[in-house]
Request: fold
Amino acid sequence: MRSYQPVVIIGAPRSGTNMLRDILCKFDGVSTWPCDEINYIWRHGNLTYPSDELPYTLASSSVKKYIRKQFDWVAEKYDASVVIEKTCANSLRIPFVDEVLPEAKYIYIVRNGIDVTGSAKLRWTAKLNIQYILKKVRFVPLLDLPYYALRYFRSRVYRLLTRESRLEFWGPSLDGMSQLVKKYNLNEICALQWQTCVNNSEKAFSKNHNDRVFMLRYEDLVKNPVEKISEVLNYISVSASHGFIVDTVGSISTKSVGKGRIILNNNEVKSLYNLIGDTLKYYGYLK
Reply:
């Protein structure tokens, strides 16, 4: 079996996790799955658990064996010395991930929750993307396919019937999600997803992870991509020339910084300050 380093990118949806993963996978020896996320794999064996906040006690020996086998597959298929994994729901269940991959290194990326909310809102109301779905279906465990097919169909029907023209679910599923979507509007649901993701991550990483976590602010990454990607590469022990790094990060720009405030109006932003203001302040996004 090939020896490799698992690296798990942790971040709330729309925080730059895709961009970071895709950039890192352009370097020699670094690979990932040929699809966006593998939450289906992480949920196998715990299919009916009511949220993505899986407690570490659910990481049974059979569950760990199954998930690790999927990491082994990537390492073998792509001859990888570093296997990058990015599933945003993992930010809710880091102790569970630790049980499965105790040797994993983490890259924790944080973005302004207002920008995240504005961006996530668009995904909740997005149209069907068949190509995106087909890429992910091949990594759904066979026995789990009927469950997800029914769930996905129901969500699409819900989109046609709801006043906000949104999906029944999108992104990480929080504890009590069915009650939250009834109580809060779409902006607030997106903001609460961000807040819970970063709060759960912060809580987990505050316990014995000092040498296994590289924290990265989205805004710093897009402002100084060469410097920040160089630091990340050093952390995961991947070598690359300065010139190659410069060429690889050439597509990164600051154009999405502050974009959430364009999508949301002033009253909506003020309302979100009341809901997630403490967390925004903690990360320096609100004075």
About this structure: The CA atoms of residues 133 and 210 lie 36 Å apart. The chain has one domain: 5-282.
